[in-house]
Write a structure and sequence with these properties.
Elements lengths: L6 H30 L7 H18 L7 H19 L10 H12 L4 H8 L3 H8 L15
Helix pairs in contact: 1-2, 1-3, 2-3
Length: 147
């Protein structure tokens, strides 16, 4: 069994680290592009950091049998970005009410009255008041990532 101090192991480790650094540089535009989609929910720095972390994790775990590298990086970056959203305790809409919530927000923006909204959503005023307690999400993407 080889030890960590084995010169051959150290050389392989250095070569692998160098190759990962080159791949990080090559796939940096992909990570930046994915991060841009989360600006508004996350700051630019937080989004880019999360995407870079996802890319680093993807490069450490990928092997050719797992498919195309860019798809693997995309998956890890998105997962890392969603984890960052979660860690910042941003609003999560339960899947069961997300469709009604989305319609509620739409109707509110259209200046519908509470009565009109309850009729359109087929809900009670009590259910409407529960929807009103959920803070409005202000970001560029839709809310479907929380579903």
């Amino acid at each position: 069994m080889r030890s960590v101090e084995d010169p051959n192991n150290l050389m392989l480790k250095e070569e692998a680290d160098k190759a990962r650094a080159e791949l990080m540089e090559l796939y940096m535009p992909l990570a930046k592009n994915l991060a841009k989609k989360y600006i508004g929910k996350l700051s630019l720095e937080d989004a880019q950091s999360a995407a870079y972390l996802g890319m680093a994790l993807a490069l450490r775990s990928w092997n050719p049998s797992k498919g195309e590298l860019s798809a693997w990086i995309r998956l890890y970056c998105k997962n890392s970005l969603l984890k960052e959203l979660d860690s910042q305790s941003l609003i999560k809409i339960p899947q069961a009410i997300a469709p009604k919530y989305n319609l509620f927000i739409y109707y509110k923006k259209q200046n519908y009255t509470d009565k009109q909204i309850t009729d359109k959503l087929n809900i009670t005023l009590e259910e409407l008041s529960e929807l009103m307690k959920i803070p409005t999400v202000t970001c560029t993407d839709d809310i479907s990532i929380y579903e």
